[in-house]
Every structure is written in C-alpha cells, then in structure tokens.
C-alpha cells in the first residue's frame, strides 16, 4: 500500500514520522493541560532558583555562601524544572502498522494484531491499551484532564483500531457479550449478624407454633 502524502497544515492529525520513514501518521495526540501546568511550574521553579541563587550571599548568623553554592542551587533548580517537564513527554502516534506509545519513561510500539481494545476505565486519569489476557499498558497521551480533546482522540483511535484490527475488535465484543450473559456467582457464605440470627430464631419459633396448632 502506497502512503499518500498530504499537507500537515490541512489536517493536524496527519504528519510524517521521521523515525519510520514514509509511514503516515494517521493520529497524533499529546496531553495539553498537564503540559501547560508543567510548563508554568517548571518556569516558576527555574526562576525562583536563579533569583535565590544570585541573591544568596550571606546571613545574619555569619554563614557565607560562595559561588559554588550559588551554582549548586541554580543547578538544582534546572534539574527539578527538567523533571517537572517530563509530564509533557507522553505522545501517541498511530500508523497503518500500529500505535507508538510514549509515556513519561520509555516508548513502546504496539502492532495492531496485539491490541485487543482501547480502554478508558471510569475514574482512571488516562486511557489504556488492552492486550491479550487483559494485560494493560498506560496511554498517558489521552488524559481525563483534556476532556473534549481527549474524547475526540479516543474516538478517533478506536475508529482506526476497528479499521486496521477488525478481528481483535470482534473478539473483544464477543468477550464482552459473553461476560454480560454469564450468571452472577453465588453469594459467598459469611457469618450471620446478630439481627439475622434473632430473625431466624423467631421465624423458627413461629413455624413450630403453627405446626403444633395444626396438630
């Protein structure tokens, strides 16, 4: 199949992935709100460390801070700022071959045949790539904080998954239907509470009295 090249300005979801040659990127997603908050926090941290480092001379107690201490403080601020910005690293790139997921640490490529479904459990901060045997991998590029943007990316990703991995989608739907039809397990035995014991004793007494009355 020949890749069709389009102007990236016409559709922001399409781009060329330099790491995969001519593979066309059908969808690209990044977290937005967390990146903004991380940028603000990182800038404040860096500014504070530089200002304090430059003003750090001495104290009323006679403690003197040298040039080395100033550079050490500023360097610590730079490192902390860089660590904060790792919250903006997550990225998702989808091609015809699969999806490339980059989280805070590391990057993983998932071919379509191994992707069972794309999940977003209620209460979770980000989506998940569900593999065989319900093994999951976090998809931090699609986060709850982004709301409509995240919902749009999730829908588009599921559409691409259904297009390029129809067998996996059908298997996931069949599994969900089978689980829905499965009867609920019996309630496990548990110790009776005090009120339940009293109710059962009274019911037994009433049954005994009614039996005697019939005789």
UniProtKB/TrEMBL annotation:
Residues 1-20, 171-215 are annotated as: Disordered. Pfam families: bPH_6 (PF10756). Residues 171-182 have a biased composition (Low complexity). Residues 89-159 form the Low molecular weight protein antigen 6 PH domain. The chain crosses the membrane at residues 34-56, 68-88. Keywords: Membrane, Transmembrane, Transmembrane helix. The keyword Transmembrane helix applies. It comes from the Bacteria. Coiled coil: none annotated. InterPro entries: CFP-6_PH. The keyword Transmembrane applies. This is PH domain-containing protein.
